[in-house]
Amino acid sequence: MPKKSNLKKVLILGSGPIVIGQACEFDYSGTQACKAIMKEGIEVVLVNSNPATIMTDPEIATKTYIEPLKPEFLEKILEKERPQAIIPTLGGQTALNLALELHEKGILKKYNVELLGATPEVIRAAEDREIFRGILDQVGAKYPRSFLVRTYEYGLEVATELGYPLILRPNYTLGGGGGGIAYSPEEYRSMIIQALHESPTSEVLVEESIIGWKEFELEVMRDYKGTFVVVCNIENVDPCGVHTGDSITVAPQMTLTDQQYQEMRDEAYKIINLVGIQTGGANVQFAVEPVTGQRVVIEMNPRVSRSSALASKATGFPIAKIAALLALGYSLDELKNDITRSTPSSYEPALDYVVTKIPRFAFEKFQGSKDLLTTQMKSVGEVMGIGRTFKESLMKSLLSLEFHPEGIPDVAYTPEQLSYPNSQRIWAVFQIFRDGKTIEDVQELTMIDPWFLEQIQQIVVFEKRFAKEFKFDENKKDESYRILLDAKRMGFSDARIAKLVGRKDADILALRNKWDLHPKYSRVDTCAAEFESNTPYLYSSYWATKSELPTFNKPVAVIGSGPNRIGQGIEFDYSCVRGVKAIQRNNTPVIMINSNPETVSTDYDTSDLLFFEPLTAECVTEVLTATGAQGFISQLGGQTPINITKKLLKNGFNLLGSTMETIDLAEDRGLFSDICKKIGLRIPKSAMVGGYSQALEAQTDVGFPMICRPSFVLGGRRMEVLENPDELKSYFERHKDYISDDKPCLMDQFLEGALEVDVDIIRGKDWNLVGGIIEHIEAAGVHSGDSMGVIPPQRLKDSTCEKIEELSRILADEIKIIGFMNLQMAIKDDVIYVLEANPRSSRSVPFIAKATGIPLVDLGVEAILGKTKKELNLEKYNWRNIKNVCVKGVVFPFKKFSESDSILGPEMKSTGESMGRGADYSEALMKAFISSHVKLPSKGEVFFSLREKDKDLLLPIAREIKSMGYQLSATTGTAAYFNENGLECTSLRKVHEGRPHCVDHIRKGNVSLVINTTTGRKAIEASFDIRRACIDYSIPCITESDASVAFLIALKKRNEGSFDVTSL
Amino acid sequence: MTKGFLVLETGECYEGNILNSSSGTVDFERAGEVVFNTSNTGYEEIATDPSYFSQIIVMTAPQQGNYGISKDFWESKDIHIQGFIALEIQQSPREHSWVNQLIKYKVPMLSGLDTRDLTMRLRGGGTPWGAIVVAENAAMAKTKAEKLIQAKRGIDKDWVYAVSAKNNEVIKGENASGPRVAIIDLGTKQNIVRLALRYSGEIKLFNSRATPVEINAYNPQAILLTNGPGDPADVKVAAETTRSFIGKRPIYGICMGHQILCLALGAKTYKLKFGHRGSNHPIKDEVINRIYVSSQNHGYAVDPKTLPADVKITHTNLNDQSVAGIYSKEKNILGIQYHPEACPGPHEAQGLFGFFFDEMVANYKF
Questions:
Q1: Which among B73, B116, B347 has the least Cβ separation from residue A529?
Q2: CATH 3.40.50.880 fits B159-361, yes or no
Q3: Less packed terminus of chain B by CB within 10 Å, N or C?
């Protein structure tokens, strides 16, 4: 019986938009917790500003508020809802910090709300390093020598005392934000300023270095009775010095003796008790000196975390769910283990397999930023691979990264890539062993524990033997079956095997089919087979001799979206999870296949059969074969499933929804433009050229401005907007190495100043439905994922909207979409251009679904399953009936990439989105900015630096800002223009005009808002320092004229002070 | 590596690799009761725990031998297991490797097999006898194994006696004012002795067949019955000896010691289907009033229905509700089915030593 049986209503805090260090793992935790609490008959009020989550789906909680996670908004919600308690431990650091603020402002007391799971004292004890160190002293635990620094001067003093390298850890920041390692006094001096600035309390712990020590993490739970369990112990392959979120990690730990491990466990137990955690989950990080075994505590978090999500997936122990139930007053022994359904939760999972997590990075998106890993987290996603051995699990997780189908391709590397941790290091380790280096050599370079290096070396040694001994001859099964089996057991993909023996991967598959060499599926059962498992959470292994598959009648497989990356994130997990539920409602069992441990889709609760597998054609083929699936759905998981669809079709599986022909029509540039021409749709003028001379011929046809990009460069790099023939010439000079007849350059007409829209449409065999039109706030030229958006459109005429809908329907009919299609269009001078079509669910689907209340994913799935108009009650869905205005806000990770430019362009850089819901545009905008962590300053100085053509446009904006009581400053030219037009404005030097210049002025803290528009490579480079200063000092910086109009609207609303909160 | 098999008496054959030393192939083959253990770490403690006498250990955690060896982890003077099976055993040219250690003690190792499948067999059908043999094929393996199993089954069933101390060693304790403790060695793990020494003035180890007269001659202030291997019903003398001390001396029985204590009380024991072996079993402890995770290793348990009414079941295994411990204030006895001394496993039950010495023994009026 729960101790707190009088609880009727609780409020759960989410973690807000996805940022580096706080991603969809909190959607997983929060969703699980909401479901568990609802099941107890307790009302749940959920607050989260992130529309892309499953968590904010109206069906998850009793009431869902998509509102900013800030005290004033929470106060309104508390006033309206009057919950008895808040659970702050499920929404990451954001939720903990918010809970602490609510406590400190007396809001909790005012509304008589209790904090469950973590009290303010606990939050402070874990987060405030001075208090925490006091606790460690009491426990007798050791920690690295360090000093709490509050001033620059004291910071210099302690650095001399501790010596270099030094680790900087600002208090109360996410994912180690603002921290890092300083190797020299020069580096340290600039870092300490930054770190002091980053910490909301201006406190930085400066710590002696434990670089090279082994790092471990214990995921623990405790209930009110004092029962303590370690759910999972995790070892980092990358030693200390790399943020644990950026490290390759393994569970269970591999290199500690039982004695060392139990001492660590004892210490964790003591710490949890002294910190005062009454109930819930926590993690404690340790470092162990590799030779002496000396142990220190790094930190602890009194909440569920990224690693607790990983631990849940790694063990089958649902940490967040149990944490929520413990908060309600249950004890661990009262809660059954979900997987065995017979034993209690007061046990520790035993693993008979190995789990490896590898982070996924996005350095290529941030030009200028160095690919170096430090104590500040930089990865944007992660994958998990499950195998019976470390080798199998490592190789499966490398495949899951979707980096290369071979998993461990041959690579070129530099010695620095081994000695300085970076995103490519693991492949360099493989390669250096191929080059014959010893474990000692590599250990000296990388400081990685020899046990791990030995495993990698064994893979490489085997690889060489395989290449020599394996005979590709289907009649020689006797000779070659065994070595092929050994290769598969080690985790070699067909693609890598094919490469080693000079074949195609299809040949290897054919041989395996002939020899009946396939993986079997084992269960993640929490208990190493000691008890029967009732939950089909499965992974493949070539070590397994029997599959533990339940039988289902004609299941449908949903292919997930793999690791989060910029451009493909949580939105696609939303589609997958909603999709699974929709299929299940049609009485069809669902197989979910995914490799991302942070997601809701990989909760064993979501589907009927969960396969934790790399999303390669090979692995998905095996799952589809083993389960006898009636078909698979590629439309829900973003681009990942689309990319393997062709191979799956070739292997004989049944694609549900739009056919491959339809997908090709939408994705192939040439085919798509032919179709558009055929049905009279306008597309931007374009040309493909192999060099400058051809470009000269094409330039008049395409016209200026134009966007140029080499077609074979990934991630939209080298993409530039060109304004005139001079820039065209310079572009081809600078990029000539990337452009040739076989690697042509795309030249597209750039629709300057055009309005862009996103349209999501569903088409069934005899019906279609437009989900909505999102009008972008920034003009064309900014990637749709990076631009803010609003629904319903604020600037488009109704007639244009109707026309857009009509064209969308025609196009969907013409290419015979069955299921989802996302369109991007641009509107200039009332002319509609189609820019892009995606034959799948899209990033904007969850946003539209939540803004309009239309269950878009469900309808898409009905379409895919062949439902006719008659079977669906479509009349009730009309996106124009939307009552509120909803604005999509965007968050960027520029802070983490210290050399990168924050200017927006055609390449996506944002990690997450927020939603502002309001009665009108201004309220929605204001909330979207606040939720995206953009400050709306109520007073101060606004600095302008404008390109020539924006000056006229932005003059009225500047005038209005001035009239609102802000001071104006601007670069020399802009200031002269303002003053000429009767607008008083301080003139500041540009950087090249000598010091003190505008950047000095900004960095001194004199400016509270920057509006900086610029075009052309040179001008962009020249103004880089302005934008970078804003990022470093968290000053809002608007780089586009339409965005500044929107910002002004939000600013006015903010200064007016009124707002309301409403639930979905 | 050589091709090898684990053959069960019920006929199943599991093919794997027999691990060899760098100096040559392995020619030793052994039989034993095949049991599985779910601990992730502690292979050396497990192999040297006399309770595993005559058993072949299947480690469900797939990577074993990772951290080498150390004499510090030995729980007795010998390696008692008859075979060591894990999916992958670290075999690198390290000097002090686990593989070399087992080879030195002529313990066969089998790796490269589906240990999960094997575990499910043991879970489903109980723990049979089996043998690890080197063979070209399954048929040959079966023939070899049958003989080995038969021979091994023929040994005296009082396994406890086989591993019990033969010389009555006296060791000075760490607590000068502490009690004199008679430890009836049923196959003790060293950590029981180490922990007892912490609280005792002196300890004396007695053989499992020591008589009350011998023990009385030492005039102990407390009696400790240790862990040990096999079926408690097959252990000779110890239960009768224990019975003569009930009510007269504080008694603390651990694992086999607990079972012997219960037999002395007139209770019966029974064989568990596949036993409890691991470091993750939840225990409800009504003596120190907590629920915690424990270290376990036993194949038999006490039938709760057969315990006398004045003895309270104070410890319960929450996985299967089996008896995990008993306590009687009147009789001043404490029996614990699992391993408060840990090694390997969590330390949370170690407080029971404190309870025994600081309360049961300290408050006892002679």
A1: B116
A2: yes
A3: C
